[in-house]
Structure formats: structure tokens, C-alpha cells
Amino acid sequence: GNTKNLYYDVYEPEGDTAELRPLVILWHGGSFMDLFSRTSPDIVVMAKDLTKMGYVVISPDYRGIRNPLDFFDMKALVQILIGSAIDGNKAICHILNNIDNENPFRINKEEIFAGGVSGGSILGLHILLLENIEDIPAQFLNWAKEVEGGELEDMLANKYCGHPNPIKGFINISGAILDTSIIHPTNTTFLHLHGKADEVVSIGVGIPQGGT
Hints:
The protein is α/β, with parallel strands linked by helices. The chain has 5 helices and 6 strands.
């Protein structure tokens, strides 16, 4: 019932003369905790490295967990995930709208990539792969439908605000999805990076933070 302003940081190559530049959208991690943000050190390092290669980088905020105890409540965690995916889709819509209008960051609409770390990768994977709300496992479905008064269904019906899938490639760093039923064919190419010693997001299958 409250409003929260969400922001994004933009990194640009210094002194480049390219008419249009490729874009990478990077979502930060942090177990969906509001303690972490678009200025997370790993995101800043990656963004600066990418600008040296000629990319524009946008690092958006998204809603996280307000009560740390929610991290151990499966319903709350699922709803935070769905809310973050809705925020991520709105960020993509905003970026595409800017490109279609003044295009202030000189972005090449045909060269848009994205990626994320941990929670940021989880939200990105659900934006890209979830096409039908019925693909969400039954034990999570009603919880997902409650978010924002059913906004997930509206998002899926109008993903990317009517644009074709703009994400050419996605870098998944320690991400996961609720269930493999969510995976659908897509034009996006994926690079998956995940360590087998990850104690937060288990590789293969598991509950975050080793929960039950």
C-alpha cells in the first residue's frame, strides 16, 4: 500500500564517438535484501569494465525484502520474487520508451543484453522465461496471483510493454527459477555461471539459504 521510488544508474564509455552503443542491463544481488542496491560493488566493477569495452550499462533498483524474517517465509519470498520481476519488466519498458523517444544514452535497440547476480539474476530469468502464469507450480500459484492485485498476469499479457523480446543475451550468475516448468524456448542466448559451493542459492535444486 506504499509507494517507493526506484532509480537506476547509467554508466557510459568516456569519449566514445559511436552513434549507437550496445547496452547491458545489470541487476544486483543480495538475497533480495533492501540492504543491497544498484551500487553493489560487484555490479560497479562489472559496469566499469563493460564501459571500457564500449557498452552502456544500466543498473536498476527493484523492491526487496523489508522484514529480514520474510527470507525464511516461502510465501513472502515468492511474492518478493514476483514483485521484483514486475519491477524489472517496468525498468525494461522505461528503457525501451527512452530509446524510442529521445534516446539520451545513444543505445542500439538491436544490441541489448542483460544479466544479474543471485537475486538479480533470479528476477531476470523469470522475466525472460515465464510466459504463462499456469507454469508456476501449484503450491506457489495463488501467492503469485496476489501480488499487486494480480499484476503478474497483466505483465505477462504485456511483457516488455508490447515490444518484442529485446534481450539478445543474458548472463546468469548464481541465479535460479522456481521450477523447470517455467522454461520456454526463447530467442535470448544464455551464459550460466554458478559455483557448486554456493550456500545461498544451491546449484541444481534446493531451498535458498538451505531452508526447508
